Amino acid sequence: MLIRKARQEDLPQLLEIYNHEITHGVATFDLEPLTLKERQDWFDAHQDERHPLLVADENGTPVGYASLSPFLPKAAYGTSVELSVYVDRSCRGRGIGLALTQAVLDLARADPGTHRVYSLVTAGNAASRRMHEKLGFRLAGTITEAGMKFGRYLDVEYWELAV
Predict the structure, then answer these.
(1) Are the C-beta atoms of residues 14 and 39 closer than 8 Å to each other?
(2) Which residues of 113-133 are buried (b: 16+ CB within 10 A; e: fewer)?
(3) pTM tops 0.90
(4) How far is 95 from 131, CA to CA, in rounded Å?
(5) Alpha-carbon torsion 10, 110, 141, 96, what sign?
(6) Quick one: which of 66, 62, 89, 70 has its CA closest to 8?
(7) pLDDT truncated to tens, each residue of the chain (163 aa)?
(8) What is the gyration radius of the CA atoms in the chain, in angstroms?
(9) How far apart are CA 44 and CA 84, in angstroms?
(10) Alpha carbon of 22 to those of 17, 25, 26, 150: distances in Å?
């Protein structure tokens, strides 16, 4: 497995990975699958050093990705970024998410403008909790019943890491 910067030709596979989570999982609170155009805007927003997009590549095919995005839009949050990690359903449990997260955190640490990394995790995701703890994140708090998906309310945990 190779971890590298995302390329334009990766976008359809990255969209497939994300859309599967929209329709089958609770890691995202999006409710309707996104279009390639909508995901293009996201891709374009992750082409700078502050907000990178990395992929895990196996034999030329992206099997997961990690990104750093602006945490919140107000200017004072500019030193904080939000981590997102998604792995293809057929490749989970193999350490791909951990490797991607370590790589994108290395980029955050190398950026003098990044002070904190935040990660929003749907409560009950034991694998994500273990990964965040292993990487030194601390649980900053839980927002109860933050969203509704598949007919049930879901809590969201905020994890934070000083870099």
Answers:
(1) yes
(2) ebebbbbbbbeeeeebbebbe
(3) yes
(4) 9
(5) positive
(6) 62
(7) 999 999 999 999 999 999 999 999 999 999 999 999 999 999 999 998 899 999 999 999 999 999 999 999 999 999 999 999 999 999 998 999 999 999 999 999 999 999 999 999 999 999 999 999 999 999 999 999 999 999 999 999 999 999 9
(8) 15
(9) 16
(10) 9, 6, 7, 10
Residues whose CB is less than 8 angstroms from the CB of residue 57 and which lie 6 or more positions away in sequence, other chains included = 1, 2, 3, 4, 63
List, in sequence order, every residue forming a beta bridge with 138; answer none if it has no partner: 160
Residues recorded for the chain: 163
Q: How far apart are CA 2 and CA 62, in angstroms?
A: 9
Strand (E) or helix (H) holding 87: strand 80-87
User: In whole angstroms, what is the distance from residue 89 CA to residue 140 CA?
Assistant: 28
Which one-letter amino acid corresponds to residue 112?
A: P
**144 exposed, middle or buried (CB, 10 Å; 0-12, 13-18, 19+)?**
exposed
Whole-number Å distance between alpha carbons of 80 and 12: 28
